Amino acid sequence: MKKQFYSNKPYLIAETAYTFEGDYNYLFEQTKDIPNVIDAIKYHMLINLDEYMVEEHPVYDLLKNWILSEDNWKDILTEAKSNKLDTIILADDKASVEFCAKNHELVDAIEIHSACINDIELLDDAIDFSNEFNKTFILGISGFEIQELLDVTEYIKSKNVKDILMMYGFQNFPTDIEKVNLSKIKVLENLLNCKIGYADHTEYSKNKELLINASYSLGANVQEVHYVKDEGLEKTDYITGVGIERLCSIKENLEIIFKALGSNDLRLNDGEKKYLNFRKVPLYMSDLESKQILERSSIVHKRVETPTRQHKFNELNEYFGKTIIKDVNKYKEVIIEDLKEKDNDH
């Protein structure tokens, strides 16, 4: 995974979902078109449909026509890697995990959907792949009761997975903004002691950028957005998908927020130090002669164009009662070099 994945820098995933509807050329072009300012591309991979659902399921016949060959997947992933993209495979079946193992150099992370979490064999296969090939393990965590989520997290950690990412966000085709509940991001991060990302599933025509920016500010540096070639064109998963131009704009906005958030270093940066020049400075209220005692009534505070230094809050308390060692003029800046302790004045 790119190094920003492990930092607080924005890491943006373009999720293709099933927008390709079994069209290899569409998915290949979708992959080819992504500029490498986007960090990763995510694919839903399904190879053995009979492992995934019963034949009587109403969408069985539809999905049967959407299955890509392993050669197709190799071509698509090779294109993604040549485009300098991290690749994430959401594996819907064990055959997909086996494909990832055979082509591990083309895969950077493997994900298990929350809908598949109770398939322990699939979960274990994905974990084993992650451990064997040192890949990031991702789990969608929406739709869990807290205790179940704690149990799942404990199970995954017990397998000694090195890199774990929990993705918060659920799909209601689309998800209402009022139900997103971004406040959970910080709570889950503290509760699970894991990296938390945000997977956006709000409607493309809504201002989803506000939610993405807010979730990033809450600590979710990994962001996932549904991606389509033609924004608004009706097809599977289109309702939450954005096009290339908007995807790049989202990444650009996240980069700006990253710069604005800065670091946790409480020391003043150059800009803050420069801002201190606007602070009022202590000045002599009138001309004073040498050997006079500096009193509070002798001082006034005003802004000057170029102060000699930054004066701290309450520092004048250390000056009062000291002796002025040379004549000073009205509105001259008060500096410690003009003063000495009264007791030393003989």
From TrEMBL:
InterPro entries: Aldolase_TIM (IPR013785), PseI-like (IPR051690), PseI/NeuA/B-like_N (IPR013132). Transmembrane segments: none annotated. GO terms for molecular function: N-acylneuraminate-9-phosphate synthase activity. SUPFAM superfamilies: Aldolase (SSF51569). GO terms for biological process: carbohydrate biosynthetic process. Signal peptide: none annotated. Residues 55-264 form the PseI/NeuA/B-like domain. PANTHER family: N-ACETYLNEURAMINATE SYNTHASE, SIALIC ACID SYNTHASE. This is PseI/NeuA/B-like domain-containing protein. It comes from Helicovermis profundi. The lineage of its organism: Bacteria, Bacillati, Bacillota, Clostridia, Helicovermis.
